[in-house]
Amino acid sequence: MAGATSACIFCQIARSSTPTSLLHSDDRVVAFEDVNPAALRHYLVIPVEHIPTVRDLKRRAEDYTLVSHMLDVGRMLLQRDVPQSKQYRFGFHQPPLNSVNHLHLHCLALPFIPRWKHMKYLSLGPLGGFIEAEKLLDKLKPE
Ligand SMILES: [Zn+2]
Ligand SMILES: [Zn+2]
């Protein structure tokens, strides 16, 4: 697997070699709680494979199905755990605004707590920022 290193904290979590408890795991993805929650509930879904950022994804079936699987898992977990939330948001930080260089889908059950945290999850249009999962899927969908 290209680029997988023992220094990557998310690779370690995916291999269950940390105390982080997994909310979901299958052969392609794992999910766990964000250590710095920005909302009522805040989960991360990551691929088991080390893919650094959204820039490493291409318009092809393989990447499209991976991201749509990540989104399905995130939706399933939030709907199960926080059905009372009025709004969910799912998306990715684009470099250079991403924190950890291992692809991770932010799954947020709103409201943002504290409220200013929403600033971190704004789309900045052509400048990048946060990209909604649905929008990324449009970009990856094979012709
Ligand atoms: Zn990694
Ligand atoms: Zn992030």
TrEMBL record:
Motif annotated as Histidine triad motif, chain positions: 102-106
Coiled coil: none
Domain HIT residue range list: 9-121
Gene3D superfamilies: HIT-like (3.30.428.10)
Residues annotated as the enzyme's active site: H106 (tele-amp-histidine intermediate)
InterPro entries per record: Histidine_triad_HIT, HIT-like, HIT-like_sf
A Pfam family hit: DcpS_C
Alphabetized PROSITE patterns for the sequence: HIT_2
Entry keyword set: Hydrolase, Nucleotide-binding
Top-level taxon in the UniProt lineage: Eukaryota
Any one GO molecular-function label of the UniProt entry: adenylylsulfatase activity
Name used for this protein in its record: Bifunctional adenosine 5'-phosphosulfate phosphorylase/adenylylsulfatase HINT4 isoform X2
Organism expressing this protein natively: Rhodamnia argentea
